[in-house]
C-alpha cells in the first residue's frame, strides 16, 4: 500500500470518529479480470508533482447514495476516474443531511442567494459547508418567489424550495421542521454570531461576505482527509465546491423525465459522439464582471486541445474526432461556430424567455428577472449541462460559475477527472479557479 493510500485510510477513520456520524463505508473488491490502465492527466487542482497514476481514483458510482447524477450509459462510469475522496465526501454529506430524528436535530435555514444557476449552486454549497462545521442540518427556506431564485410557483407549488422543485431533497428534514416550535431564528453571517449554541435553528441569507468567515472555508471535518490528498492546499475549497455541487445537483425523477422529453424535442435523434469536446461560451451579463472572451479564442483553444490529445487517452479510448458540443446563451456564437468547416458542431437552443432582439449586454439581472421564465431556463440549462457532461474533453473559462459547475460535475459523478480541461482565459493547467 502506498503512503498516500495509507494516509487516506487513516483520514477516513478520523473523519468517521470525529464527525459524530455513523455510516457504512465498504471498500469493495473489484471483480477479477484486466483493469483499465490509468491514463490521461492529473486534475488541475492537484499538486504539480503528482503523476497520472498517483492521481487516479477509480470511479465508484455504485457507492454513491441513491439519487446522484451518474450516467450508467457513459463508458467513463466503468473505466474513468473521479476526484480524490469523492465517494467518502458524498456518503458523509448524505449522512449529515439525514439525521435519525428531525425533531431532535439542529438546523441552518438557508435563504438562497439571488443569482444565476451556477452561482446559486456554489453559494448553497458554502452554506452546506457552514452547516457541517456547525453540526447543523441545512434546509432551504421557501420563497421569495421571484425568477432569480428559479422557484416557479405555478409549476412547483406555493411553498416549494429549490430542491423540492428540481432536485432530490437536500435533507430528510424540511424548513417546517426547522421552524417548528421555535421563534423567528436569528440570522448569522459567521459562526461567531451564534450567541446561543443550543438554539434549534439559525438562519443565513444570501452570499458569504463576513470578515471573520471566508467563502473559501471548508468544514474542519474534512481536514484530515484533505491533508492526505494530492490536492494543492490553497484549492481545498475548490474540492469542496465540486463535492457540494455533486450533492446538490441531483435532478429528481420529474426533472429527469422532462429533460428526456426536451432532449428528444430539441436535440432530435442525435447523441454526443465519443471524443466530443464540450465548449461553453459565457457572454451576456458576464461582461459586467470580467472581460468577455471572443469566439475565435475558444475555437483556437479547442484546436490546441484536439492536437494535444494525440498523447492522451480519453474515457472512450478513441482519439477524438473533430466534434464540438457548444453550450452558450449567445445566438451569434452559435452562428460563428456553425460556420467553421473543420468542426462538426452540436448545440441546443437555450430558450430563456428573453426577447431575441435583446443584446447580450442588455441581459442585465433586472431585465432577466422581468422577462425570463425561470422553469424554462432551469430545465433547458440542466439539459445543456447533461449533454456537456457526456463529452470527453472540456474548454471553458473558470471565471464563469457555469463553467466551474461543468468542471466540478465531470470530475465527480461523471467520472472524468482525468480528461483534459483547457481554459480560454489562462494557461493550462489553469491556476485561477475564481471564488
From TrEMBL:
It comes from the Eukaryota. The keyword Signal applies. Residues 1-22 form the signal peptide. GO terms for biological process: protein N-linked glycosylation. Keywords: Signal. The keyword Calcium does not apply. InterPro entries: Fut8_N_cat. One of its GO terms (molecular function) is alpha-(1->6)-fucosyltransferase activity. Residues 87-414 form the Alpha-(1,6)-fucosyltransferase N- and catalytic domain. PANTHER family: ALPHA- 1,6 -FUCOSYLTRANSFERASE (PTHR13132), ALPHA-(1,6)-FUCOSYLTRANSFERASE (PTHR13132:SF29). This is Alpha-(1,6)-fucosyltransferase N- and catalytic domain-containing protein. The lineage of its organism: Eukaryota, Viridiplantae, Chlorophyta, core chlorophytes, Trebouxiophyceae.
Amino acid at each position: 500500500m502506498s503512503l498516500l493510500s495509507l494516509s487516506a485510510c487513516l483520514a477516513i477513520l478520523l473523519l468517521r470518529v470525529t464527525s459524530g456520524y455513523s455510516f457504512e463505508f465498504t471498500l469493495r473488491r473489484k471483480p477479477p479480470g484486466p483493469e483499465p490502465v490509468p491514463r490521461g492527466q492529473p486534475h488541475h487542482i492537484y499538486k504539480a508533482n503528482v503523476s497520472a497514476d498517483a492521481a487516479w481514483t477509480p470511479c465508484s458510482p455504485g457507492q454513491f447514495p441513491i439519487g446522484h447524477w451518474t450516467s450508467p450509459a457513459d463508458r467513463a462510469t466503468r473505466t474513468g476516474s473521479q476526484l480524490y475522496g469523492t465517494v467518502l465526501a458524498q456518503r458523509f454529506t448524505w449522512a449529515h443531511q439525514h439525521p435519525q430524528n428531525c425533531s431532535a436535530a439542529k438546523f441552518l435555514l438557508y435563504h438562497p442567494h439571488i443569482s444565476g444557476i451556477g452561482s446559486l449552486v456554489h453559494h448553497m454549497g458554502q452554506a452546506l459547508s457552514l452547516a457541517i462545521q456547525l453540526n447543523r442540518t441545512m434546509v432551504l427556506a421557501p420563497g421569495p418567489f421571484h425568477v432569480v431564485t428559479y422557484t416557479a410557483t405555478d409549476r412547483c407549488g406555493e411553498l416549494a424550495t429549490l430542491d423540492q422543485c428540481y432536485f432530490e431533497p437536500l435533507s430528510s428534514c424540511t424548513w417546517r421542521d426547522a421552524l417548528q416550535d421555535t421563534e423567528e431564528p436569528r440570522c448569522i453571517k459567521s459562526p461567531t454570531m451564534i450567541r446561543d449554541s443550543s438554539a434549534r435553528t439559525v438562519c443565513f441569507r444570501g452570499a458569504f461576505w463576513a470578515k471573520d468567515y471566508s467563502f473559501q472555508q471548508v468544514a474542519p471535518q474534512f481536514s484530515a482527509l484533505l491533508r492526505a490528498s494530492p490536492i494543492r492546499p490553497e484549492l481545498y475549497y475548490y474540492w469542496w465546491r465540486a463535492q457540494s455541487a455533486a450533492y446538490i445537483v441531483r435532478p429528481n425523477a420529474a426533472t429527469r423525465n422532462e429533460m428526456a422529453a426536451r432532449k428528444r424535442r430539441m436535440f432530435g435523434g442525435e447523441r454526443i459522439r465519443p471524443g466530443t469536446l464540450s465548449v461553453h461560451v459565457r457572454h451576456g451579463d458576464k461582461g459586467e464582471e470580467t472581460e468577455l472572451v471572443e469566439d475565435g479564442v475558444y475555437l483556437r483553444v479547442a484546436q490546441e486541445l484536439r492536437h494535444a490529445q494525440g498523447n492522451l487517452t480519453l474515457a472512450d479510448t478513441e482519439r477524438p474526432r473533430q466534434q464540438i458540443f457548444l453550450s452558450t446563451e449567445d445566438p451569434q456564437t452559435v452562428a460563428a461556430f456553425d460556420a467553421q468547416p473543420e468542426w462538426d458542431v452540436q448545440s441546443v437552443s437555450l430558450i430563456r424567455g428573453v426577447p431575441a432582439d435583446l443584446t447580450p449586454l442588455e441581459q442585465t439581472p433586472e431585465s432577466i428577472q422581468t422577462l425570463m421564465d425561470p422553469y424554462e431556463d432551469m430545465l433547458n440549462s440542466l439539459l445543456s449541462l447533461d449533454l456537456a457532461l457526456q463529452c470527453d474533453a472540456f474548454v471553458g473559462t473558470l471565471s464563469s460559475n457555469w463553467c466551474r459547475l461543468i468542471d466540478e460535475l465531470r470530475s465527480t459523478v461523471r467520472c472524468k477527472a482525468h480528461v483534459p480541461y483547457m481554459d480560454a482565459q489562462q494557461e493550462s493547467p489553469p491556476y485561477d479557479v475564481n471564488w
